[in-house]
Structures are given as C-alpha cells and as structure tokens.
Design a protein that fits this description.
The protein is an alpha+beta fold. Helices cover 44% and strands 21% of the residues.
C-alpha cells in the first residue's frame, strides 16, 4: 500500500468563545453531529467580565495560515489517501481509500464558580448565543470537507499512477478555495453571529 498524507490544513474562523457551560458544550458538540472523527480541542481562557474574557482570547488565539490573521477558532483536518500496488509494480487506483479526521480548536472559559458568578446574566446569554454561532460556523468548514472528500477520491481514480498524488492535491486545493471564500463571505463567522461580546 502507498500512503499519501497531506499535512493538517488549517481553516480558521474569527470566532471567540469564552466559556462553555454544559449547555454551551452540548451546543458545540451538536453542531458536529453526523460528522465522524471530529475532536474539539479547547484551550482555557479566563476573565472576570466579557471584556476580560475577550482580552484572554485575543492573547491565546491561533493564526490563520491563509491570511496570517489571529483568530479565535481553528478547524483543521488530516486527509490521507492510499492505494494498493499491483503485482507488476503498478497501482490500483480503483481501490483507493481516503481517511479523514478533523480537529477544531476553540477557547473555553475556565470553569470556576467565582468566574462564572462575575458574568452578568446578559453576558452569559450573549455567550451562549455566541457559542452556538461559533459551533455552526466551524461545523460548516468541517462538514464541507467531510462531504467533499469524495472529490479527492474521484480525482485520484481519474488519474494515472504517476499523476494521482498531484490530482489529489489539486482537488484538495479546490476545497481550500471554498473555505477561504466562506470565511471572506462570513467575515470569519462574524456575519453569522460569532462575535463576543456583542457590539
């Protein structure tokens, strides 16, 4: 078998998350329902009010490899394709398989009673709305890639043994182009309600 791995491709949303209560965690997990092999990797943030939480997120957030912007949530995936070799040294592209897994990195409010108590009811409601929007936006990235992994498979099967890997990478570049446009259209999720605190 020949295994072709593409490094994790980051797609990012300018989104903030400042604390996942159990309700917020459930909202995040529900957004990814039906997509196998998705891991949500939370990074901790802290703050006594909405603006302090925002500053903590700003200090800890990752960078979008596509535009160099620091963003609050990062979706990435690992796509690997492989095909068996034939007895005569060729390849059986019709038997190609694709493996997929995704990771979504998002901030999470440090779960302390002291901190939670300092957020107002309005900030908590704003937070819950925001977490739902964050999860929906990130799930949009992850779901699109999962549903379109077959585009890579089809490109490989139309290629030759010599051109199959390049064909797969070209198909993957098409997926990346979609995600860049999606983030541009949604302003990295902010037009979908992923802003905290609300303006």
């Amino acid at each position: 078998m020949r295994d072709h791995a593409l490094p994790i491709r980051p797609l990012v949303a300018l989104l903030a998350i400042a604390g996942l209560t159990s309700q917020s965690s459930a909202q995040a997990n529900a957004a990814f329902a039906g997509i196998p092999d998705v891991t949500i990797d939370y990074y901790p943030v802290d703050g006594g009010d909405a603006m302090a939480v925002r500053r903590a997120i700003d200090a800890a957030r990752p960078t979008d490899a596509h535009d160099g912007r620091r963003v609050d949530a990062l979706s990435s995936w690992d796509l690997r394709w492989s095909w068996p070799r034939t007895r005569h040294g060729g390849c059986d592209l019709a038997a190609t398989t694709i493996r997929y897994k995704a990771t979504v990195r998002m901030p999470q409010l440090a779960a302390t009673a002291r901190l939670t108590a300092r957020l107002t009811a309005a900030e908590r409601a704003d937070w819950d709305r925001y977490v739902a929007a964050l999860a929906r936006h990130e799930a949009g990235h992850v779901r699109y890639t999962y549903r379109h992994r077959g585009d890579i498979l089809a490109a490989i099967r139309r290629a030759t043994c010599r051109t199959a890997d390049a064909a797969a990478r070209a198909a993957l570049a098409g997926l990346d182009a979609y995600h860049v446009a999606y983030d541009r259209e949604t302003a990295h999720g902010t037009k979908e309600g992923a802003s905290f605190p609300a303006s």
